[in-house]
Amino acid sequence: MRLEDFGYNDELEKFRNENNLRSFEIGRVVAEHKERYIVRTTEGEFEAEITGNMRFTAESREDFPAVGDWVTLTTYDSGFAIIHTILPRFSIIKRQAVGHSGEIQIIAANMDYAFLVQAVDRDFNINRLERYLTMCYSSKVRPVIVLSKTDLVNEMRMNEILDSINARVKNVPVISVSNETPKGYESINAFMKKGKTYCMLGSSGVGKSTLLNNLYGRTIMRTDKISESTNKGKHVTSHRELFILENGGILIDNPGMREVGIADATNGLEITFNRIVRLSKNCKFKDCTHIREIGCCVVEAVEKGEIDKASYENYLKMEREKAHFESTIAEKRKKDKMFGKMVKNYKKDMK
Ligand SMILES: Nc1nc2c(ncn2[C@@H]2O[C@H](COP(=O)(O)OP(=O)(O)OP(=O)(O)O)[C@@H](O)[C@H]2O)c(=O)[nH]1
Ligand SMILES: [Mg+2]
Ligand SMILES: [Zn+2]
Questions:
Q1: Is residue 321 within 8 Å of 127, Cβ to Cβ?
Q2: How crowded is the C-beta side of 174, counted as CA atoms within 13 Å?
Q3: Is the pLDDT of residue 340 over 80?
Q4: Cα 167 to averaged position of ligand 1 atoms, centre (Å)
Q5: Quick check: 143 and 116 in contact, CB under 8 A?
């Protein structure tokens, strides 16, 4: 295997040369199991750990390798390797982990596209789709909507779903597939490009691993039927892993997500709700909340039916979450700073 087959490109090569990293080997993180990484190089697969220094200087989760990362490493004949540096990422998908305030989870690094997979039988939810879109835009990853299990609904329902997407989502490709028939596979295969990296995001049980297995040509990820009692997926996939498909594309399977929290939504909301944000620039008040102010262009457009009301409500909800997230982060920074000062003063006093 050549590095290019795994998505290696000129920019990475340039960085490697400019930073005198040629003495190390180079590889891509293809899987992660609790701080142990599987890294693919031209020589094969290695089980790797990071250097003590990297662990010691890490300030956040982002300073650790993630699936999709390009890293420099030293490999040993035993199949073991040490990771020295993470090459700069051109994109990184993160989200706020459920239950922990401010805790960030890295989903994947260096993704070109994200397949937002929703099953059309009961999983389809346009509000959630707007959340995934926001996550993609703030991560600099291009979104593609993949509607799965199309064999389970009739044409009328299918058109209803497509119409509801068209009403609220602009400029995002939509691919409909069935893993059973297998309708839509030619579209997916035509869409995927050699050397580009794609990841699948969606709820449990929507058919992500089934799609990966079929595109790969054999069963490499375990799948399971959805629970009869809850009608939901059983969270079968529990880790992230990257594979090269027959069509040349590189695909990452992900565990199903329970919730899509809005973490760092910089620019994300502006792109997803681009019409609303543009209109809001003309509101009478600079700090307009677009709820009940006089001279609010957003409310006016909603009342005139120019903006979908449900989309507007989803926007307000996500804006509130973003504000909340930003204030917890600011609070945390303040505390860290205070702690830093305390340590400094302590050191001074010791002298
Ligand atoms: N009818 C139908 N069933 C499908 C389709 N795709 C997947 N399934 C079934 O749905 C169930 C769940 O599929 P998985 O591929 O395991 O789902 P997943 O998205 O990987 O789920 P997690 O790993 O839990 O996130 C399995 O029983 C599949 O056979 C489809 O297109 N049509
Ligand atoms: Mg799965
Ligand atoms: Zn307004």
A1: no
A2: 20
A3: no
A4: 28
A5: yes
